Amino acid sequence: MLIGRFLYKDFIFIGRVYDGVVYPLSEHDLNISQLCDENMLKSDRKNKIDKPCYMLDELKVLPPCVPSKIVCVGLNYKDHAEEFGLPIPKEPILFLKPPTTVIGHGESIILPKQSSHVEYEGELAVVIGKKAKNVSQSDAFKVVLGYTCANDVTARDLQKKDQQWTRSKSFDTFCPIGLYIATDINPANLNLRVYLNGELKQFTNTNKLIFDVPALVSYISSIMTLMPGDIILTGTSSGVGKVEKGDKIEVVVDKIGTLENFVNA
Ligand code: MG
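Above: inputs. Below: predicted complex with magnesium ion.
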């Protein structure tokens, strides 16, 4: 199932997307925690929620979730570590992006004046569906709502200059996510492509992740409580590169779809 967040006039809702039509999962604005708790995603409900519905072109598509935090994994593809001449990590390398970095499909990444070298990083994002602490790897999928595309936009010059990565990763608009959340898919074997102005720049498969989704959910939840709507960015492959004003970036993941954003100053 593909689910997204939408704006219709002044009404924000989560809806199921099917064949260009959006079916609200409730008559009132639900958050992701309620969606999971009330079993709104059970397939036997599909026929009970068909009215009212909206055509996609009537709606503004919003970022598909509202995270309290975005937990990111660095150097989680061998070829990306090698690209930077860095050793393969023995444990996941974590950092955070603030929720204010989030933008949705079609919104603009704004180049900050403090940086002269901003890069894209296409990634698979895990969307958490249930409050999670100390989750075992075997239970990890029970707390995952689904998956979406993400771009871990990075001011590479500031990342190299600073002692740590907070500034380089945290500018407003530096975390495009979307377009929708795909539930009920296996994240272990998905092709991931990034196009810059239509040219293929990154191409990998999530089967190349050093630490896979269950390992990451378990590891991160042993440190901090994950909340419904929180996002884990699973890391990027080789092929990252600089963006300029006017560029179009597309992150495309099998079974999820395309996240498209433009770059502005
Ligand atoms: Mg990254």
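The chain has two domains: 2-62, 70-264.
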